[in-house]
Structures are given as structure tokens and as C-alpha cells.
Design a protein that fits this description.
This protein is an all-alpha fold. Helices cover 79% and strands 0% of the residues. It has helices spanning 2-12, 14-25, 28-57. Helix 1 (2-12) packs antiparallel against helix 3 (28-57) and helix 2 (14-25) runs antiparallel to helix 3.
């Protein structure tokens, strides 16, 4: 479930949050541009991380070792 949360959070919340933070903390035009670039990068990283985490947990044939 954590991976799914990362995917949804990366897609829905990361870009607007980062753009808003950068716009409010930096110069008006430059802050927004930096926020767009940083937000897109963080959104992709978070989404990919969630997908990889879900792929690791998926074990259709029971091939993982049990401890």
C-alpha cells in the first residue's frame, strides 16, 4: 500500500506543492520556473519509486523465499 500511496502522491500532489513552495519562497518568475522543473523531477522520482516498490512486492508464482 505504501507504493500505491507514493504513486498517487507523486502524480497528484508533488508538482503543485513544489511549484507553490518555490513561487512563494523565490523571485516571482524564476521561483515559478524552478518550481516547475523541481516539481516535475520530484513527481517522476516519487512515482517511479512507488512503481518499483509495488513491482518488488508483486510475486505471482510464489518464487520469493520464505524465512
Amino acid at each position: 500500500m505504501h507504493g500505491l500511496g507514493q504513486v498517487l502522491g507523486g502524480i497528484v500532489f508533488e508538482l503543485p506543492k513544489t511549484v507553490l513552495d518555490a513561487t512563494l519562497s523565490g523571485p516571482p518568475v524564476v521561483g515559478t520556473a524552478v518550481g516547475l522543473l523541481a516539481g516535475a523531477s520530484r513527481a517522476v522520482q516519487t512515482t517511479v519509486g512507488g512503481v518499483v516498490e509495488m513491482a518488488e512486492a508483486f510475486d505471482p508464482f510464489g518464487t520469493k523465499r520464505r524465512r
